[in-house]
């Protein structure tokens, strides 16, 4: 039996990295008073169709959708922003002025699996809901950079842009289509298909010929009005004050329809084509579009699998020790009846142990204790029961000694070290 294509088991030796990411992110986010939120993995298909945008890859070809027994159209969430906007409305979270939320969980997209691209993958994300201020954009970008830095990501590039308001983009689109139409024959196939339904995405094209054509295309930046330009200027200025380096990329548009004004991405400078780790931006109309009160918002999502690929080694150095202090070997019914008092005492003292369950010879049990790297093996068999004592073996010194049972319990603390 194999897992489904594009999905992966996260095994115990890897889960420690995930826990580390969760813990570090949650500590940093708690400092900024962000609260964790968990929304359902399944939502109405309609939620994503209404928000992400008809001409996007996600809606066109990547959704995991099905009809349930009551004929409802349901989708495994491809991303969490739409779900959080839905939760914001369903739970009337708008009753408080500002919501600072974060999440970590699985997302699902039917894509061609490759390194850094899975069908079930995980995102850590934040959403700052309720503020129009450029301070909000800067705070969320700062948090992404802080979290990535603390997790040991070294060489990364923050790219930022403003895609203005819907009105500004509509004006730009007209001119962009006009310009690109002259070169229609020379565009790559994807871009040709997007020319009328989603022309902004052409700016994203990796095709060299298309990139050359784009070189002299009109610049979206020139279409921003004073308010939009000022917003972007302030976001950049605050980033300067925080000493966060960034590059302005006027072609950075992002794949989802609900963004406006600020968009940004964080990339590693590896050659890997899946080198975008974090993507985000402002989405001031999404909540209203879903039937909620007009509420501006800004957020981002980090792909955990892509992040882990680059920070695993750094993270390794900070992982907590997980050595087993005590291995418990027993033999015979009397010993196996009595051992539970010791188990309870080890628990009370928070001493890490492994209880052998194999019922094999002591020799075999001690061998396993050494293999697991335990410091001590305590041995309780018929002989110890008859003498009301317990045997302790120091595994690295190959020495063993017996202690009266009551003294053993009194001194159980010494196994801590
Ligand atoms: P891409 O252009 O690589 O497909 P995207 O624009 O679709 O990315 P977003 O929707 O912005 O990605 O998601 C934010 C982050 O989630 C990405 O930067 C990436 O790190 C991660 N991500 C997205 N899709 C996948 C996937 N299929 N497998 C693993 N990680 C993913
Ligand atoms: Mg994608």
UniProtKB/TrEMBL annotation:
It comes from Gracilaria caudata. GO terms for cellular component: chloroplast. It holds the Pfam family HGTP_anticodon. This is Histidine--tRNA ligase, chloroplastic. Keywords: Aminoacyl-tRNA synthetase, ATP-binding, Chloroplast, Ligase, Nucleotide-binding, Plastid, Protein biosynthesis. The gene is syh. PANTHER family: HISTIDINE--TRNA LIGASE, MITOCHONDRIAL-RELATED, HISTIDYL-TRNA SYNTHETASE. It catalyses: tRNA(His) + L-histidine + ATP = L-histidyl-tRNA(His) + AMP + diphosphate + H(+). Belongs to the class-II aminoacyl-tRNA synthetase family. Its main location: plastid. SUPFAM superfamilies: Class II aaRS ABD-related, Class II aaRS and biotin synthetases. L-histidine binds at residues 79-81, 109, 123, 127, 254, 258-259. One of its GO terms (molecular function) is histidine-tRNA ligase activity. It is found in: Plastid, Chloroplast. Residues 1-320 form the Aminoacyl-transfer RNA synthetases class-II family profile domain. It is an enzyme of class 6 (ligase). One of its GO terms (biological process) is histidyl-tRNA aminoacylation. Its EC number is 6.1.1.21.
